[in-house]
TrEMBL record, chain A:
Phylogenetic classification of the source organism: Bacteria, Pseudomonadati, Pseudomonadota, Gammaproteobacteria, Cellvibrionales
PANTHER family to which the protein is assigned, alphabetical: CYTOCHROME C OXIDASE, CYTOCHROME C OXIDASE SUBUNIT III
Membrane topology per record: Multi-pass membrane protein
Keyword Transmembrane helix: yes
Protein name: Heme-copper oxidase subunit III family profile domain-containing protein
Stored Pfam families: COX3 (PF00510)
InterPro entries: Cyt_c/ubiquinol_Oxase_su3, Cyt_c_oxidase-like_su3, Cyt_c_oxidase_su3-like_sf, Cyt_c_oxidase_su3_a-hlx
Top-rank taxon, per record: Bacteria
UniProtKB/TrEMBL annotation, chain B:
Keywords for this protein: Electron transport, Heme, Iron, Membrane, Metal-binding, Respiratory chain, Transmembrane, Transmembrane helix, Transport
TM region positions: 29-51, 71-99, 111-134, 160-181, 202-230, 263-284, 296-316, 328-346, 367-387, 399-425, 437-456, 487-507
Family the entry assigns: Belongs to the heme-copper respiratory oxidase family.
Protein name: Cytochrome c oxidase subunit I
Length: 205, 592
């Protein structure tokens, strides 16, 4: 914040350090462009999920809201997402230490757990519909399907990136896929965080 | 290293036509693709406005305009103009063209994503237009798409039109997100050496701030569109209240239409600035260039852009005074609405003071820029009326709002679109446009739009309601109002048709225009310093530029010429120094 204020206080029309004739390195973050882009995407996705949460909270005060009994399998899916996130972090650490084979193994574990998470969410949908809660049954069940679907689509998008990265890790020179692994790891942490928030919300409906 | 910030090397572009001009990843080609698509769809929206005006001015004269058709025109006109023309043109068109060039980069940092952004945008337009070919036609719910009316039987286009509209918006938002992430990352990470944040032209400041607004606000539209789609297709009740329709209670019920309004306007008000901010930036650079004077109060202009961006997120409910809200909330939103006028007014004062004692060249870009100040001022002042709850409520459903909205959100930005196209046309095409045709185009548009929208303020004060299909038979609407409507309709159609001058000028000048040279306006910013005009693939030849100064060194005392490009070293642009402590351009008009 201090740096930002200092920047905005510069007088570029004057001579001297912040004025004329002093070329400077100007990139704001000491990060790869992909990592900056992904962080910007997090802001967009966070805004999206936050607005869904706000809509959920505002809608749940109406009289027709009937809380849904959340399927128990959600605890399993949450656990899987945690394992996936940890595994990808381990993979990223192994990549940075150039233990490529170990990194690949951990990366596989991360991806498979994420895939199993998606399967568990589908099981949760099935359990819920068998219990008589369809999409239009009441607003709580509508939100359950909506929120899990939007989160699930983000996870599936991540799995596509995971698959591409896994192929690169197997075929590329050692270390060439490092940024891609880091991105998958970051994305996985972000989606875990979002899911934690959504799960808390669904449990407290 | 990203292609965008590669320092040296060979940068030949693709040879085949399809890779060079269709599936292109070159930001300049993508910008032109965005611009041309936006203009094409904008012409459709213009024709729709003529049909509306025919019905209002000469009711019944065109037999095919029934109430359903009229509301479909209203809806499609509004949505196309706001989203698919203005947003796409300012950010997809000017953003794409100017960000890498003004930042001294070779391209956007994610060129493939940038290309996808355009094709998703085109897809969204095609989905929208497809609604003309489905049973029931496009939606006639009004551009705000308020439920429950937008998805209830009886509203035009409830079968397929509303579904296609919502799908189109969702795809547009995905397209915008892909483009927006590119703009942000490019400006943050790929500026050339020496281009510090406070040396950036105001165009970049404003486009990037508008992009941030879009990235944070469009999700609200996305959320509301998805939830409304669920209500329409899957029978959920997010927004649907209990309704008895044609004597029968609907299965849906209990939802909150006001929730939709909050979500929609949480996007909708920042959207005003998503359009306005780029216009502010572009016009700042055009005014400074053609007045041969540094922009007045550069720092204040940057702060004002950021302040407007921030405050724009806490004013949304002033669109909902008539929906009913807590009295104190009304006070809050009225106050924030008036507060946002302060940074906006700072900008208007600074534009005016930039012109003060400037060496003003009254060419077409300058005329349109001055036209922008005038129309934006009028639209802004009427905004002060509508920002106050007590005044807004009686005026809200009248033509006063139509007049205000069009002056501030339609005419003012369109003035800048024209100013910017004329200004950067020589760089984009390598040729000059026809100045005479340009000046005629300006006067027709400027005078014409005043003739159209000024009388609407009067109609609003007289109480003429908006959104009506026909105005005959209402005692409170005077005969003079009908005459005025006829006049407005005639002028609207005339001004619309005469926009052909612009199209002719642009197309003819491609072949017959004088060669422009690299920097016909003697401008300082980097896009005018490219080794080739139009800039080649990679923009900068073998080496990226290095920036030594801010973007507004015009008429610097002691300098040989009345401009010093940003990439010229030395205080006077020729290696000479004035002295360590004497700011050479800190005299009259420079910010304190």
């Amino acid at each position: 914040m201090t740096t930002l204020i200092k920047t905005l206080a510069e007088k570029p029309w004057l001579s001297g350090h912040d004025g004329v004739g002093v070329p400077a390195e100007v990139a704001i973050f000491d990060l790869a462009k992909e990592k900056v882009g992904l962080r910007a995407f997090f802001a967009v996705a966070a805004s999206l999920f936050m607005l869904f949460v706000v809509a959920y909270r505002l809608r749940m005060v109406y009289s027709d809201w009937v809380p849904v009994q959340d399927p128990g399998v959600l605890w399993l899916s949450t656990g899987l997402l945690v394992v996936a996130s940890v595994a990808l972090q381990v993979s990223s650490i192994f990549m940075s230490r150039q233990h490529d084979q170990r990194a690949l193994t951990a990366f596989y574990v991360g991806g498979v757990c994420t895939l199993l998470f998606v399967c568990c969410q589908l099981v949760a949908w099935s359990e819920l519909s068998n219990a008589g809660y369809l999409v239009s049954t009441n607003p709580a069940s509508s939100f359950f399907y909506l929120l899990t679907a939007v989160h699930g689509l983000h996870v599936i998008g991540g799995l596509v990136a995971w698959l591409r990265t896994a192929i690169r890790m197997r075929s590329a020179e050692p270390g060439a896929a490092r940024i891609a692994v880091d991105l998958c790891t970051l994305y996985s942490h972000f989606l875990l965080l979002v899911w934690a928030g959504l799960f808390y919300l669904l449990l407290n409906s | 290293m990203a292609y965008a910030d590669q320092d040296t090397g060979h940068h030949a572009g693709p040879d085949k036509f399809i890779w060079k001009y269709v599936w292109s990843q070159d930001h300049k080609v993508i910008a032109v693709q965005y611009g041309c698509t936006a203009i094409a769809v904008g012409i459709l929206a213009l024709v729709l406005s003529w049909l509306m005006r025919m019905q209002i001015g000469f009711p019944g004269s065109l037999e095919f305009i029934d109430p359903s058709a009229y509301y479909q025109y209203v809806t499609m006109h509004g949505m196309i103009m706001v989203i698919y023309l203005l947003t796409a043109f300012f950010l997809g068109g000017f953003g794409n063209y100017l960000i890498p060039l003004m930042c001294g980069a070779r391209d956007m940092v994610f060129p493939f994503l940038n290309m996808l952004s355009y094709w998703f945008y085109l897809l969204s337009v095609l989905i929208l237009l497809a609604s003309y070919f489905v049973p029931g036609g496009p939606t006639g719910a009004g551009w705000t798409l308020y439920p429950p009316q937008s998805i209830l039987q009886g509203t035009p286009g409830t079968d397929w039109g509303i579904i296609l509209m919502l799908a189109s918006l969702a795809v547009f938002i995905i397209a915008f997100t892909m483009g927006g992430l590119n703009y942000i990352t490019t400006v943050l990470q790929a500026r050339c050496r020496g281009l510090t944040l406070m040396r950036m032209p105001l165009t970049i400041w404003s486009i990037i701030t508008a992009t941030v607004l879009g990235l944070l606000a469009f999700p609200a539209l996305f959320v509301s569109a998805i939830m409304l789609m669920f209500d329409r297709v899957l029978g959920t009740s997010f927004f649907m209240p209990y309704i008895v329709h044609m004597g029968q209670a609907l299965e849906t019920g209990g939802g909150s239409p006001v929730l939709f309004q909050h979500l929609f306007w949480f996007f909708g008000h920042p959207e005003v600035y998503i359009v306005a901010l780029p216009a502010f930036g572009l016009v700042s650079d055009i005014l400074s260039t053609h007045a041969r004077k540094n922009i007045f109060g550069y720092r204040m202009m940057v702060w004002a852009i950021l302040a407007i961006g921030g405050i724009s997120f806490i004013v949304w409910a002033h669109h909902m005074y008539v929906s009913g809200m807590n009295l104190y909330l009304g006070y809050f939103f009225a106050t924030t609405t008036l507060i946002i006028a302060i940074p906006t007014a700072i900008k208007v004062y600074n534009w005016t003071l930039t012109l003060w004692h400037g060496n003003i060249h009254l060419n077409t870009p300058m005329l349109f820029s001055i036209g922008f100040i005038s129309t934006f001022l009028i639209g802004g002042l009427t905004g002060l009326f509508l920002g106050n709850v007590a005044v807004d409520i009686p005026l809200s459903d009248t033509y006063f709002v139509v007049a205000h909205f069009h002056m501030v959100m339609a005419i003012a930005p369109i003035m800048v679109v024209f100013a910017a196209i004329y200004h950067w046309y020589p760089k984009i095409t390598g040729r000059m446009y026809n100045e005479t045709l340009g000046v005629i185009h300006f006067w027709v548009t400027f005078v014409g739009t005043y003739l159209i929208y000024f009388p609407m303020h009067y109609l609003g004060f007289e109480g003429m309601p908006r959104r009506y299909y026909a105005y005959e038979g209402y005692e409170f609407i005077s005969e003079s109002a009908h005459s005025l409507n006829e006049f407005i309709s005639v002028v609207a159609i005339l001004v619309g048709v005469l926009q052909i001058l612009f199209i002719i000028n642009m197309l003819m000048s491609l072949k017959t225009g004088k060669l422009a040279g690299a920097n016909p306006w003697n401008a300082t910013t980097l896009e005018w310093q490219t080794p080739q005009t139009p800039p080649a693939h990679g923009n900068w030849g073998d080496e990226l530029p290095v920036v030594y100064r801010w973007a507004y060194d015009y008429s610097v005392p002691g300098a040989d010429e009345d401009f010093i490009p940003q990439n010229q070293p030395g205080e006077l642009g020729d290696g000479r120094e004035v002295g360590d402590d004497t700011g050479h351009s800190s005299g009259e008009g420079a910010p304190a």
